[in-house]
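Escalation from tier 1.

The customer reports that the assembly of two entities below gives different structure tokens on two consecutive runs. Tier 1 could not reproduce it. I'm attaching the input and our single run for tier 2 to review.
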Amino acid sequence: MKSLYIIIVGGGKIGYYLGKALMNQGHEVLIIEKEVRTYERLEDELGSCCMRGDGCETAVLSEAGLNRADVLISTTSHDEDNLVSCQVAKHRFKVPRTISLVNNPINDKIFRKLGVDATISVTNTILEHVEQEIPAHPLIHLLTMSGQMEEVVELVITKDSPAMGKSIGQLRLPPDTTIALLMRENEKPRIPDADTMLKENDRVIALTTMDSEKTLERNLLG
Amino acid sequence: MPGTQSIKQSKKSIVIMGCGRVGGKLAAMFDAAGHKVTVLDLDAYSFRRLPPTFSGTALIGNGTDEDMLRKAGIEAADAFIALTQGDNRNVMAAQIAKYVFKVPRVICRIYDPLRKDIYEQLGIESISPTEVFADLLFNRLEKV
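Tier 1 run:
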């Protein structure tokens, strides 16, 4: 594996553990932390792998060697700081890949629109797991594609669903949605065709987008 | 002053984020000139800066939150001005106003001149008080 130079902005819990994990994977990591006390704790353990400064400031990022960085990950608890770090990295230093932690889930979409390559929302991630644990939930988020608006979801057909008893070809799917897989009890998972009829308790895996998710849920599950 | 004329022509809807000294004064000025003003601040105490005659709306809330901006009437706003103490907050709110809500005129205060240059290049109309004030002082003192 190619070793990357990864800059992490924010040395809180997430930045610290993420930095250590990436170092263990053999990458070169630099953590930038603004708060003096947090920085001192980091420095005791990580030495020259951390740097004190404001990760939104051009001078600090320049000193951190952003010109040769492969990835910048911003992990602070302030979304506005995360956004600015990523944008400065991208536009001023041409960092190929910027990843931002998103504290307010509503910013997930906005950040991608404003040029951040990938976003990670802690709230949404936890929510996805909760949905998977609750069997009654009709639409389950399985995966969000990095850097795009696409996602993989699972829909469980019940006897009251509009899709119940219909064939895949009869479903009213949003144009950017594809039914990828059908899982039925005691059967091997398979790729359904237009004539496949949906039964109760069928689990349908679909590739869709954040914008079309609601329409998909309404048309298939009611 | 450029811009004054276009504002004068009709009643405009203006959203101001940050009711500090500048934000409060600007809100009062637009209000007195007959425009529809909404001013946002995280702290209700900041609204003491608005004059008793102020007839606009004062809202407690975070201007970097899309839902809050919607509540402040950003969808129908003619102009949005970001004037909080935080450069990054201003920059983020200004971009949401411009690129998500397509507000026709967006102006953003950025203290850090380097950051201002970057966002100016990205198409955000920005003013750095640091630059403006330093220039002003330099020009005055140089004449002495």
